[in-house]
Amino acid sequence: MSKLYKIAIVGVGPRGLAALESLYLAKKNSNSSKKLKVVLFEASAYPGAGQIWTPNQVRTNLSNVHERNLSNNLAGREALYFDDVFIPEFPSYKKWLTNTDDDYSEKDVFPARAKLGSYLNERFNTFREALVGSDLVDFYQKEVIKIEPSETGCIVYTKDEQQIEVDEAVLTIGHQPTYDSKQLKTWGDHAEENNLKLYEDPYPVGALETDSISAETTVALRGFGLSMVDQVRALSIGFGGYFIKKENSIKWQYIPSEKAPKQLIAFSLNGLPPAPKPVSATIDNWFKPNAQEKQSFIRAIEKAEQRAASIKDASFLIEALADMTASVYIRMSAHSRKHKLSFQELSQLTVQLIKDADTAHELILEHDLPALEAMEHLLKMAFGKTAISLDYCLGQVWRFALGILYHDYTYLNLPDEAMVDVVNYIEASKRYSYGPPVKSLQQLIALVEAGVLNLDFVNNPTITPVENGWKLEKNNQSIIAQVMVNSVIDAPQLVAVSSPLIQNLLEDNRVDPVSYKLGLHTLEDGSIISKNGNSHQHISLLGRLAKGSIIGVDDLIECFGKPAHKWADSLIERL
């Protein structure tokens, strides 16, 4: 009887689902006769969706990926047949929308996270059900705390002290718990001592809809990005408030309920609001690089790869992006701010802007605008109702550039210092490139105009814990919040992760972090690199904590991209 190879997939969110599908697709394509059994570990209740995309979360949590993009790029799964097992095909997201009687139109619609979670969970269940009948799958709804190499494979340890031996394991874990910052730890101690409410984790957002928040509660929100928008919706719509469109206007109006809190205070380190994506495909296409612009960008990346050892920073990427942005901005002159700059001058200004977000110029949205005024300008640009600034154009071009990078150049194989620099600039772009739907800005503006969302303290206020809450001070004004909500999601910095699984990997001294700011060293196929430079036998890593070896770790569509396929192909080849 031929050996049955056990493959553990630890963390079955979207990336774990992609790894599972890729594994059997690789087996089919290789005509391998090896018998595989998958051993799946996922602590959350909805495998395939995981914690971030869980179908039972509040409907006010929106994806920042529109259905046009999902429908064009989230492909289905082909049917697979092997070893007397039939795994049915699963439709693409676009076909699934039709099957579930959901509307799909060319207008950019941003689905609820729960809706995407339903798609991912259904896709997983059809695969798992096919394998269950053949006894080729074990599923553990348990937390994994340790993975240890053995002589022939590795041992997976669960929180309840089970030990499961497997031949290979891949970690496809997503967002991991992190150590509290000094500020959050101080606030946590203060909340405990004074019986106050501090929500330390941005998700689940539904946790905010509790008796501890009433109409008279002043709620402060730490952060001014995508998670904060989800939380603001939960604190308004979730409490019975609603929004209506204003006639002959792109603005909305907020109608509060009697239960909804009347005072929300947003603050962040720089007070800059998120920039919305364009409202429609028509306006989005203004920023879309043409074939020649894309090719120039790709050539710059390929040249950098050819001389990878000499690349010390992200200059090659910045210059290529600046050239592409300058070309797009000149081409969209009918919609952009008027100027007399040459292509070269515009490119140099863009380089300066990328390196220093505080760069001042008549083509750039003023950095020190009051937050409400900045949001109104950004909203008009998203609707094409005012001349496009260079920084808004750059942000949208960045988004298209990231699509190229994430799809074709996930593994750049540059020196550590260069990868750290590249990742830093990608993170810095997210205010624009990962922007929310216009609906989010319309809602924030409506809340400000209704006197509910207070932006007087938005730019780095002084915060002092006091007996009845937290006192925020800015520009000789002060206010006390009884409830504090953290809406900042930590970046995937390996050393900040507190989960025992990662701590045990680090403590065994067998793995090698890219940098204290990023993740683990991996090869292109996900194999973890040890401190002596060898690949870590039998254990691989895909996802957020490989950041620095790969890029594009936070992109849902790219969960189903090249890294999962390369891991699967490599594993089948090894077996």
TrEMBL record:
Domain named FAD-dependent urate hydroxylase HpyO/Asp monooxygenase CreE-like FAD/NAD(P)-binding: which ranges? 8-176
The cross-references to InterPro entries, in alphabetical order and at most eight, read:
FAD/NAD-bd_sf (IPR036188), HpyO/CreE_NAD-binding (IPR038732), L-asp_N-monooxygenase_NS-form (IPR052189)
Sorted alphabetically, which PANTHER family does this protein's record hold?
BLR0577 PROTEIN
Protein name in the entry: FAD-NAD(P)-binding protein
Source organism per entry reads Leeuwenhoekiella aestuarii
Q: What is the lineage of its organism?
A: Bacteria, Pseudomonadati, Bacteroidota, Flavobacteriia, Flavobacteriales
